[in-house]
Design goal:
Family: Belongs to the bacterial solute-binding protein 1 family.
Mean pLDDT: 88
Organism: Paenibacillus agri
GO biological process, one term: maltodextrin transmembrane transport
Subcellular location: Cell membrane
Protein name: Maltodextrin-binding protein
CATH superfamily of the largest domain: Periplasmic binding protein-like II
Length: 443
């Protein structure tokens, strides 16, 4: 069964894109998670007198002697360094930043949480939430639940929720769009047929020049060739692990378009990575790039007024449907300072904090008031991502999502590098996913 149109439209129309970051400059205070096998009580020691789910920031105070550790990616650290300074100044709670890539944080929390070595606050893609919540690694967003729901977009709340329980504190949403160099491409292509036509006049492998480049071996970027023509990942709004639509008729139609695009990008999938692509786009040797808002600041600096951003071109005549994700904070259930951690997560996702995130990183907020701010509405680049977000689908957050990446990321290079029939490659990947879902725990 396909992802239901109502879910897609409701979630996608409220989505916006972004990357996020967290950091601080305070002294190392060691691991803050309690060295115990029992998670902290939801709400902590100092919650007396608060109404769960409807508290304001003034209704909760940090524990005596509280200090926090926050995990954050290297790329997104500048934002958190600023927010952590503000938080410490207001609440007198030191914050230490440790650099851990977002997709690695739940795995690290699984290992380090019970032993007391993990961060108090983590920052993860929403599709990792199911794994963390089902293992009781994170606390519900209980104290600020009603305010969080009122302040943020519907899609970001969906992404922050697992099995009906709000866990996350959403701070940004993201998808990808088409970057293009206006000095090379006068008008953004409307279809991938247009991309091929342009590339025939521009691509020259001997000179390392290509009409378009994207990470062709990565499901995240190539989901558009599955979903745009009727494929899907899991049925029942991304919750049914036994209904996989990666190899249905629609998915194969789109993947046939994917395979044809090797004419525009005649190199092996393994020869493309973010650093190579970024360098070639900045130098003018790649005319178009499909990527997310995390590249915006650097590309603006490199290309200036020649930078353009547009929705992804159509696939086989169908509007491109991209993956979208929510970046969320969550509080470690083993934290010694759950009050302080919840307060930090709430503070770092306020309207003001999300606007600061946009200013420093180039993100688009999930906070509804921030979205209406001129800083966001008058930005042509952010607006382009927001337009693409209207036609995006949130990644499933069930634990079995972890079983999808490796099989599909192996199938895509088979199609691209070895000309394996898309149906054959995806049938194999789907069977591997089913075996993982039914025979082993989610990875």
């Amino acid at each position: 069964m396909k992802l239901k149109k109502l879910m897609v439209l409701t979630a996608a129309c409220s989505m916006v894109l972004s990357i996020t970051a967290c950091g601080s400059n305070t002294a190392n205070n060691g691991g803050n998670a309690a060295a115990t096998n029992a998670p902290a009580d939801n709400g902590g020691a100092n919650n007396a007198g608060t109404d769960s789910g409807n508290a304001a920031a003034g209704d909760i105070v940090p524990e005596d002697g509280a200090s926090l550790i926050v995990w954050e990616s290297k790329e997104e650290r500048p934002f958190t360094e600023e927010i952590a300074k503000r938080f410490t100044a207001k609440y007198n709670v030191p914050v230490k930043i440790e650099e851990v890539a977002g997709p690695d944080q739940v795995t690290k929390l699984t290992q380090d949480g019970p032993s007391g070595l993990a961060a108090d606050v983590i920052n993860i893609p929403h599709d990792n939430l199911g794994k963390a919540a089902s293992a009781s690694l994170v606390l519900p967003n209980d104290i600020f639940a009603e305010q969080t729901k009122a302040d943020n977009t519907e899609a970001s709340i969906v992404g922050s929720t697992f099995e009906g329980e709000l866990y996350g504190y959403p701070r940004a949403a993201e998808t990808y769009a088409l970057y293009y160099n206006k000095s090379l491409v006068k008008e953004a292509p409307k279809s991938f047929d247009d991309v091929l036509a342009f590339s025939k006049t521009f691509t020259d492998k001997s000179k390392n020049k290509y009409g378009i480049m994207w990470e062709v071996g990565n499901l995240y970027y190539n989901y558009l060739f599955i979903a745009s023509t009727g494929g899907y990942l899991f049925g029942d709004n991304g919750t049914n692990k036994d209904d996989i639509g990666l190899n249905n008729e629609g998915a194969i139609e789109g993947l046939n378009t994917f395979a044809k695009l090797k004419e525009a990008l005649p190199i092996k999938s393994g020869d493309i990575n973010a650093d190579i692509k970024r360098s070639l786009f900045n130098s003018g040797d790649v005319a178009m790039d499909i990527t997310g808002p995390w590249e915006l600041a650097g590309y603006k600096e490199a290309l200036g007024d020649n930078l353009g951003i547009a929705p992804v071109p159509t696939v086989a005549g169908k509007t491109a449907v991209t993956f979208s994700g929510i970046k969320i904070y969550a509080v470690n259930s083993f934290s010694q300072y759950p009050n302080a951690a919840k307060l930090y997560a709430h503070f770092a996702t306020s309207k003001e904090s999300q606007l600061e995130l946009n200013k420093i990183i180039g993100s688009v907020p999930t906070n509804k008031e921030a979205l209406e701010d001129p800083q966001i509405k008058d930005d042509p680049y952010v607006s382009a991502f927001a337009e693409q977000a209207k036609n995006s689908q949130p990644m499933p957050s069930i634990p079995e999502m972890g079983n999808v990446w490796s099989p599909v990321n192996a199938a895509l290079p088979e199609i691209w590098d070895k000309d394996v029939d898309p149906k054959v490659a995806m049938d194999k990947a789907v069977q591997q996913i089913k075996d993982l879902n039914n025979g082993t725990s989610a990875q």
